[in-house]
Here is the input.
Amino acid sequence: MYTLHDRVSYSRIDVDRKIGIESIVNAMQDTALFHSEDIGRSAAFLAERHRAWLVSAWHVIFVRRPEMGEYFDVHTWAYKFSGIFGQRNFLMETPEHEVLAYADSRWFYFDSENMKPTRIDKEESEGYGTEPPYDMDYSVSRKVDYPEGLPEVGSIYVNPSLLDSNGHMNNGQYIRQAAGFLPMGYDVAELRAEYRNAAHHKDNMRVRAGESDGMYYVVFENDENVPYFISEFKAR
Here is the structure.
């Protein structure tokens, strides 16, 4: 298990002085990247070898969003490696061990020279090791289906500020942008997100959003209605 000690800063809070859901996911992603840095498997190290880890799905449960100034810890660990996929848990809690959020995530190992997924190197999986999975619901599919006919509500132009070091839109930015299309005051209890196709600089993503069967969906598509990103939100 790897742990990052953190604190809710002003730049992370929303109108109710609580940390935003996208900032919670970013804190989890940052913890995974620091984990990689500290075991000598950083993104830069992998890039030199034409390798990268890319996330394909998130399932996050938000128990309580801490407020401005609160301290919190984020723990992360890998629990399974198989073929091209790695699976990783996250646990966010107070220093007194009150659970704030927890998550399952699925990543795939990528060959950036040939631009395709590739089997995980033995040295890579052994560098992390595995621990037992967190006690949460794993029966939910990582594939996020969404209803047909969601209304188009806007568009997002992928400008340079949205890109990461891999040259495509940052994982956390998808969630940040999607949360911006939720109704005002929508209190998110659960998020499922699936990344289908990477968005690059100058892509113009069409946004479809709406409620169906108690869930709120935000989907980013190209002009051919092929999704880049699909998110499903459940209210508290």
Observations:
- The longest helix spans residues 21-38.
